[in-house]
Specification:
Number of domains: 1
Number of helices: 5
Shape: globular
CATH topology: NMB0513-like
Number of strands: 4
Mean pLDDT: 83
Order of helices and strands: HHEHHEEHE
Largest sheet: 4 strands, antiparallel
Low-confidence stretches: 1-17
Distance between the termini: 8 Å
Length: 141
């Protein structure tokens, strides 16, 4: 199966439990994960699939035990910053087509995500995903 045709749901291959998948893939207990370990888990996922922004807040809530909406957004943006620093690029994913956000540095990407997230008035979800992340050149099979 071509990477673009694969499911875009993190952890679906592991029963749909994102936190459990990250714990298994990183070898770290869910209750002791930190931002760096979450970034590492998403980097591993990016090797085989796209990573949706919508996936991150639920993982923050579950793995870090944070429930305040503003703090979840703040920690999610820390994860996004880590993904960008490690080489992933943001873009829009629609009907198996990925369109990169061209010409935006990390600060502008983070500002754009925060602006759109606040406008949603809820965590991003699959329908209001804001953006996705992948490698500039495919590393997926």
């Amino acid at each position: 199966m071509v990477g673009e045709e694969r499911s875009t749901v993190l952890g679906q291959r592991h029963g749909g439990n994102i936190a459990q998948w990250l714990a298994l893939s990183t070898g770290v207990a869910m209750s002791r994960m930190d931002i760096g370990e979450l970034v590492e888990g998403y980097m591993r996922e990016a090797e085989i699939d796209y990573v949706g922004l919508w996936q991150i807040p639920g993982t923050i809530r579950h793995c870090l035990g944070i429930h305040d909406d503003d703090e979840v957004r703040e920690k999610s943006l820390e994860v996004v910053k880590g993904l960008l620093e490690r080489g992933l690029y943001p873009g829009t994913f629609f009907y198996s087509k990925f369109s990169f956000w061209i010409g935006l540095g990390a600060d502008l990407v983070l500002a754009q995500i925060e602006k759109e997230w606040k406008a949603l008035k809820h965590d991003p979800d699959l329908l209001d995903s804001i953006c996705w992340f992948t490698w500039r050149k495919s590393r997926r099979g």
